[in-house]
Specification:
Elements lengths: L1 E7 L3 H9 L7 E4 L20 E4 L1 H10 L11 E3 L1 E5 L5 E5 L9 E5 H12 L5 E4 L4 E6 L4 E5 L4 E9 L6 H5 L7 E14 L6 E7 L2 E8 L3 E8 L1 H9 L2 H11 L7 E16 L4 E2 L2 E3 L5 E2 L7 H17 L10 H29 L4 H15 L2 H11 L2
Parallel strand pairs: 1-2, 1-11, 2-8, 5-13, 11-18
Antiparallel strand pairs: 3-7, 4-7, 5-6, 9-10, 10-11, 12-15, 12-16, 13-14, 14-15, 16-19, 17-18
Helix pairs in contact: 1-2, 1-3, 1-7, 7-8
């Protein structure tokens, strides 16, 4: 079996890449270890996925072009019109969509909702062959093509392999690409809650010397939290009774949204940063978490991945007379175009994490002065907000 492009990993980024190439004329294959996600006949209005993403307007438009955004049940998608960021000494920074002439700053929605919408379109995509569930066992590169072997014995050849298989990427390991993940010695604790006060389409974030807490609005009187804490504190939070967990989240968020009630049991994941020297080699391109990891404090991890997909599609569609999708010159153009965005996001989130998760009194003064100064400098606020819309 021979293809122009084989995408390994059918998560949000890999699926969006496949969908965005539906009219390219290229022969595509998607290899995914899981079965196809299916949408139940009726969604339980009281059940919410604990894996929540913030999707920028720019990426929402990309997903619309993929054919997925318009398939979403918009009653389960929440627009964010304002964001309020608090330091630890009465410092504050506010962002408003109104200030930059936008309808919203971002959209909050469940991972599973978007995953199903993307896969629904892939099932009917004429230039795409699906291999799922399928397990990869061997991947080798040759001058004319990459050779992929599956556990069931099938062999696939491709001009280009795209690794979209997550932060512990099998593809990246097979390619022998050096990786230096740096652990943050923090876990991200996630859970969903009902609230007694309206969130007013506002996202909240509290930076404290020992943690970073984000409250992301969900439709109705509901919120999702992402609480970056030490591994020990994470274990403690996961062991709490629902009532005690609500109490501690309420205290950390200064009672901003009133009484809380747990909707989705808490879960946690370890945090780290991964910066690769290269995200391409001949016949290989990495996208999404396979290419980079960032701290979740900005909610930009999946957005970086979607921008990877957008850029790779642009390079492939504008390749001109170049018929070989795996040509290294073509792939280096993709890597070069993505370098600044990836590096700036990694540096920004890393700097903010180290600046705020720190009890040094001088740094405390600097960070709180910085928040207040930025809050009173409208041009800078607008610049930051516009960047977040992409």
């Amino acid at each position: 079996m021979e293809f122009d492009i084989v995408i390994i990993g059918g998560g949000l980024v890999g699926a969006s890449l496949a969908a965005s190439l539906k009219s390219s004329g290229l022969r595509l294959a998607l290899v995914e270890g899981q079965s196809s996600p299916t949408l139940p006949d009726k969604i339980n209005a009281d059940v919410w996925d604990s894996r929540i993403y913030a999707i920028t307007p720019g990426n929402a438009e990309f997903l619309r072009q993929c054919g997925a955004w318009q398939k979403l049940d918009m009653s389960r998608v929440q627009q964010v019109e304002e964001m309020r960021v608090f330091g630890d000494a009465d410092s504050e920074l506010d962002f408003s969509a109104y200030q930059v002439g936008a309808a919203e700053l971002t959209f909050i929605l469940e991972s599973s909702l978007l995953q199903r919408a993307l896969w629904d379109g892939l099932q009917q995509q004429e230039n795409l062959t699906m291999f799922n569930p399928a397990r990869c066992t061997d991947l080798t590169w040759h001058p004319e093509a990459a050779h992929l072997k599956l556990q069931d014995g099938r062999e696939i050849k491709a001009k280009l392999i795209v690794g979209a298989d997550g932060r512990d990427s099998w593809v990246r390991h097979q390619a022998g690409m050096a990786e230096t993940p740096t652990p943050y010695h923090q876990h991200g604790v996630v859970a969903n809650f009902s609230i007694s006060k309206s969130h007013n389409s506002t996202a909240y974030q509290w930076f404290k010397p020992e943690s970073i807490l984000a409250l992301l609005p969900l439709p109705g009187k509901r919120v999702s939290i992402v609480w970056s804490v030490s591994p020990e504190r994470s274990a403690e939070l996961l062991s709490l009774s629902p009532g005690e967990l609500c109490k501690q989240v309420s205290e950390a968020s200064q009672g901003q949204l009133g009484d809380l009630e747990v909707l989705t049991a808490p879960a946690s994941f370890s945090l780290r940063v991964l910066n690769l020297a290269h995200i391409t080699k001949p016949r290989l391109a990495l996208v999404g978490d396979a290419a980079h990891n960032v701290h979740p404090l900005s909610g930009q991890g999946v957005n970086l991945g979607f921008r990877d997909a957008r850029q790779l599609v642009e390079v492939l569609l504008q390749r001109g007379v170049q018929s070989d999708c795996g040509d290294i010159k073509l792939l280096r153009a993709y890597e070069k175009a993505r370098r600044e965005d990836i590096l700036s996001m990694q540096l920004t989130t890393d700097a903010l994490k180290h600046l705020f998760i720190n009890d040094n009194p001088w740094l405390r003064k600097i960070r709180n002065l910085g928040l207040n100064a930025t809050n009173h400098f409208t041009p800078l606020k607008k610049l930051l907000a516009r960047h977040a819309l992409n």
